[in-house]
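General statements about sequence and structure are easier to judge against a single worked case. When preparing material for the folding task, we compiled for one chain both its residues and its backbone structure tokens. The amino acid sequence and the backbone structure tokens for this protein are reproduced below:
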Amino acid sequence: MSLFSDDGYEVEHIILNRPNVNAIINSNNIANWDIMKADESVASENTEEVDDNTEEIETEVADTTESNESSPFKLHLRKFSIEEANIWYNDSVSNMAFGIEDFNLSLSGNMNDMRTDLVIETNIDKLNAIIEGVSYIKNATFNADLNIDADLENSKFTLKENSIALNAIKLNIDGWVAMPTDDAIDMDLSLNSSTIKFKDILSMIPAIYQNSFEDLTASGNLKLVADAKGIMSGDYMPDFKVSLDVNNGKMGYAGLPKTIDDITLKA
């Protein structure tokens, strides 16, 4: 109805439908999204004409400011969504590749308020991570439901109710993330789970999870702890810790005569 009002029309929802993104950094450290080319001759000519055109430019800026104040367009964003996206990132310099297929994201909240609750729902059908030729994550599923207290004025985001699942591993993350400057991210995050089991960790082995995970029996004591605290900026990383302990692990398949017993893992 804002189309017919005198206050201007409003955009409340932005949808990216089936985007395909292939981001590449080649062996010469050139990114395929860096498409702007500087023209030194034009820059030199513009510099010589600056003094002559100063008064004219100031007048144009003033006119533009007045016209912007009366613009009929208003962005009252309350929902942003991505539907069925495929995104690949390939870095030949670092020898890393990451890919997500059938990626869906829904972000809702009143982005016009200085403080609002953001609700984020996302799922990925296939998640891949390859580092130096080793496939650490292969065709994993990922789901997340996050409720975030967003202090947009101070660029600080505090996690409230949330759940994250990577294959059979279900986790919770507590804490906050802030952006005090454009080139720094401050954080105090902790990862925990009261329901994770030894069998859930085995779901990260593609051959097991994709073919015979339901037939697998596993038991054992498991403890997973992770946290990150501090500022990430440039070459500086926050203090972080990840600890995984498995004691008295056991696994096997129904119908097979033997099991694998006394599995111990400290990582």
